[in-house]
Amino acid sequence: MPVAPIARTLAHVIDRAYRAYRANQAYENAKTAAELAQLAVEINERRNQIKKMLRATIEAMTREIDVKSSTFAAVDRGGNSTVSRRGKENLNFKEYIERKVPFRPAISQVCTVALQLPIKVPRRISKKIAGDKIETTIEVALKQFTASLFFEAVDEALQWRSSLKAEPNYNGTSKKALLGIPATRPKRFGSDIQPFWPRPGGLLAPDLVVVEYRQEPFESENVFAAVEIKFPGDWVKQKQIDQYAELMEPRTGVNREKIGRGKVALLRVPEDCTGSETDNKQPPTSKGTKNRR
């Protein structure tokens, strides 16, 4: 075949391949846009759902705006350190598991719903089967995101004066809280659909912060408890606990390290939730139980 026809044929093939690629990309983008739109609808529905579910709690918080969180902590008996998910977790993190957390019933209710009915999103992945690369889609359950979204919905319903702040950002160096408008509202860097991510580097964000005085900003001095929430399959990490303990340390005074550590709590879902199946039970602790999503 002459060189010119070969070149024309090759150019034609390349052009068709490029057009097919662009058409496929447009189709994929359209699917992504549709998925995002559906996700936005689902998120709005879940916000309304949790506001109805926690209506009594929201109304109580509205009336009790001047009551300190420490008052409610007095009636909390802490988590279940008799339960271990793996290894010596119940021994290594005993003090954090048993920490008294105000509003544990409301927190438990939110986390239980997030565990049972999480928002799910499709995620495209590549995997090799018999040497061939296959593109497929899996469904991912966003339990932590669902819980954070619920806590944020409660905060919004209370005009950002809830005792419970979902994933508030703190500067890891200065330990200053990143405040929004009003100052009791956490500053966000994400989108309306995913407000908690992405997060700029150098920031720390505990899963949940319980403030002592909820009409004041959530600076570390006003934090009663920084709660690390762990759903099944998400293991406790000592580094994470240490980071939050250091974040909560006072800038001056004595026993700073002890005070900072005393503000950190660990809540495993459902083990440490009020009303969970493991509530008031003491299974063997010699072996950790493996959790699956």
Could you characterize the architecture of this molecule?
Helix content is 40%, strand content 16%. With 293 residues, the chain is of the alpha+beta class. The protein has one domain (3-117, 143-268). The strands form 3 sheets. It has a 4-stranded mixed sheet with strand order 3-6-7-8. Helix 1 (3-53) packs across helix 7 (143-157). It is globular, with a radius of gyration of 24 Å. Mean pLDDT is 83; it is low at 12-18 and 280-293.
Write the layout of secondary structure elements.
Blueprint: H1 3-53, H2 55-63, H3 69-73, H4 89-92, H5 94-97, H6 104-116, E1 119-129, E2 132-142, H7 143-157, E3 164-166, E4 170-171, E5 203-204, E6 208-211, E7 223-230, H8 238-247, H9 256-262, E8 264-268
Parallel strand pairs: 7-8
Antiparallel strand pairs: 1-2, 3-6, 4-5, 6-7
Q: Which terms would index this structure?
A:
disordered C terminus; 293 residues; globular; alpha+beta; two-stranded antiparallel ribbon; single chain
